[in-house]
Amino acid sequence: MQSSAQTAPFRIAVLPGDGIGPEVMRAAIHVLEKVQSCVPGLKLIFDEHAAGAGEFQRSGDPLPEHVRLACHRADAVLLGAMGLPCVRWPDGRELTPQIDLREIFQLYQGIRPVFLYHQADCPLKHYKPGEIDLVIVRESTEGLFSTRLRAIDPAADAATDQLLVTRERSQQLFHAAFQLARTRRRHLTLVDKANVLPSMVFFRRIFDEVAEHYSDVTTNRLYVDAASLLLVRQPTDFDVIVTENMFGDILSDLAAALVGGMGMAPSADIGDDTAVFQPCHGTAPDLIGRGIANPIAMVLSAAMMLEWLDSDASRAAALRIRRAVTSVMRDPSIRTPDMGGSRTTVQITAAIVDAM
Ligand code: ATP
Question: Which of 75, 160, 314, 320 is the most buried if burial means most Cβ atoms within 10 Å?
């Protein structure tokens, strides 16, 4: 995070990636350029790099060394989406450089806000705008993803994955989640599976220890199955949710469905030194080149980046983008097809830019 007095330009590593990544990234850059022209003192320098499945096909490496270095040197990383089902490692796994980045830079806090802008966008009963307003904090460097790179033996009779929970990482995660809850409605829900898995008993024990430092935050503990039911039945009960990597992966898609789908789900992957901002969605191969990808998750991820950069100007710019998105979302006819509308990516982006 930068100091609020920062006046030097922010260097943003831009990784559009694959599929609809470049389409939604174009939208975000357009919005960022517009906000830069509106907010005095905001200076962003964009440094674009090829990474992902396309880069793998070109060079054999989805995340070349020079791209890692550029991300390391940048003040923040903006990422579109990466990976394509048809481009795989020889063992059959998809390329996931977006997950590699979380591990390389130890971006352990996967922050995934879920906010309902208009009642028409919720498939459940008619919640009012802002009534569904929660954040999932997904641990993003260990959990059930910890052995994801282990080689597969095609001749074996069984395969296993390991669910890793370390004390240090869990403490960092929970402190971050409690601190986030303090900036909101001061209610934190731990989601685990402590009734079955020993690793989750350990996870919950560390949560309880950390909770003792935050008597001003109320807490709840739910098993992941019960949490899934409650997210659908009573999403207004939640403020901040903190959970394991895989549970967070699944629950954040479920929660996105409550507010319009993947095109409405921004995210930030935050570590102690750097952060990557990207929509929760993937490359959506069914939409490539059709011009109808919903750019809002990407635009809101860019707003999260500006908040995290934390200068007076970047915070003002983030607010301006959020207000523009809120104003566009007030009219339920301004939607891409994933949300039942007929507008294109370019039209939604233009509406956001006009609203600024
Ligand atoms: P990943 O595993 O990388 O998260 P995924 O296979 O789960 O990706 P996504 O690419 O996230 O799948 O998207 C699933 C479907 O949701 C897409 O095929 C597409 O129809 C829809 N979708 C995702 N993102 C958007 C978007 N920005 N705009 C419109 N529809 C989207």
Answer: 314
pTM beyond 0.90: yes
Task: Please state the atom number of ligand 1 nearest to the C-alpha of residue 96.
Answer: 3
Using pLDDT thresholds of 50, 70 and 90, give the confidence band for residue 6.
Answer: low
Contacts of 337 (CB under 8 A, 6+ apart): 292
Query: How are beta strands 133-139 and 109-115 bridged, if at all?
Result: antiparallel
Q: How far is the CA of 283 from the centre of ligand 1 (A)?
A: 6
Predicted confidence (pLDDT) per residue in 179-236, tens digit:
999 999 999 999 999 999 999 999 999 999 999 999 999 999 999 999 999 999 999 9
CB contact burial 154-180 (16+ within 10 A = b; e otherwise)? eeeeeeeeebbbbeebbebbbebbbeb
Which residues are 192's β-sheet partners?
A: 223
Q: What is the pLDDT of residue 154?
A: 83
> Which whole-number Å values give the CA distances from 189 to 25, 204, 222, in the listed order?
33, 11, 7
Q: Whose CA is nearest to atom 14 of ligand 1?
A: 284
Q: What is the model's pLDDT at position 4?
A: 63
Give the long-range contacts of residues 325-334, CB within 8 A, separation 24 or more.
325/117, 325/296, 325/299, 325/300, 325/352, 325/355, 326/117, 327/355, 328/352, 328/355, 329/117, 329/118, 329/121, 329/129, 329/296, 330/117, 330/118, 332/118, 332/120, 332/121
Nearest protein CA to atom 12 of ligand 1, as residue: 282
